[in-house]
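user: Kindly work through both lines:
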Amino acid sequence: MNKWFQKLNSPLAVVLMLTSLSLLGVWVVLTFNGNGDTGDSIVHFQFARYAFEHPENFLNSWAKPVYVILASPFAQFGFEGIKIFNLVIAIATAFLLYLLLKSTENPFSFLAIPLLFAAPLYFVLIFSGLTEYMFALIWVLGVWLFTKEKYVMGAILLSFLPFARSEGLLLLPCVFMFMLIQKKWKALPWLLTATFVFGIIGLLVSGDFFSTTATNPYISFRAEYGKGPWLHFLSQLTYVIGIPMYFLFGVSLVILVFGLFKSYSIKNVNINVKLWLFILPIIIFIGAHTCFYALGFYHSMGLKRVLICIVPMIVYLIVDCLGYLWLHTEKTSGWIKFSLLVLVVGAVLVFPFTAGPAAIKKKELMCDNLQITTDRFADALQKRYLLSSINRIYCSQPYLQLKLNIDPFDTQRISGVGQFPSVISDTSFLLIWDCEFSEYEAGLHPESLLNRSDIRLDLRFPEDSGDPCFLVFAKKM
């Protein structure tokens, strides 16, 4: 059996696994037309797609400068390009997890690759424009650099975490404590690298050193999106990693924490890596989001996709625990251990293909009903109007902007519906109200538009629907 594991841990086997997953990912990109969602996924793509025309996008705090910088070349090839970008990131993350585990002489390090892609939501949202994958890659790469004793390089890389996602501010203290315990005093100041880099750029561009570094678009202590139960994220984690992996993670966490308390040594680098760079970051990440959502802070909507950031950490702990149990149960029959391993890992790998509510579903990789309606509406809109001749378009739905090939950062022609003035001076304009972003994000209700005397309803879509998805208004003649 050990020979089998050695073969599966070989470079050839790992290359075959990564190649197979890459080909699977490319097939999904070419076959399925989903975008992850109609909101953030599209907007992140837009920031990257139009960054060269609007350089200020590279420093936008909400869009995340690191993501925009790295994703912008891929985004020039359309939304398929951004899907490929996230696929490359996921493949790289899986490979780095394998390298991390192999460096600890874990006999099952190869399992990190299929287990990562077996997490249902992790796999589905690879094919989106979301930033969680970039965040996870930076973390895993930074940890790998630490294990190679490249502390300065690791500190520099991890200093960019807050500019990849805001959660980086929550996890950097773990990095600081790890480096402090390892007595890497000279490397500690390098954790400020990204702050100084973007501070200097901000100073040159806007004259404000803190224009990028101090701007957090999520700071809010109002429950703008409501509140949720304290156990929300713990329950939603089942949809992110699947039920078998969820229980395996829980068991692994208990066993590893117990093992750490039993054999903890401040001089043991591997133990400190496990504690400070995997276990505590997971606890802090879930704990922080739990508090934010339960208290209604920081614009929290309780979105389970944020947990994608820690899926690679979870996979690392699971595989680490499997290796730990295998090596510390010498008296147990090899065939019994092997049978249990196949049963447990098999359940994790098979689960995404079952009919369970947390499994992968084909429709999750496809456009939803609202997107299909938007596709039809975009066609009807382009047939009815010569959009290039209209002076100003008010439109807030990112997916519609994508279908109409609208540059949302062209402020001379494009505005959100929330910016529609009380007195309109343009004679050539279109106000496109949608039932999602116009009403819930901008707070613009159709009744307030229908009651205005200076504009007219020009198009209702679908026309035969009593509850239309889109209303188009123009100047009343």
Notes: The first helix runs from residue 2 to 8.
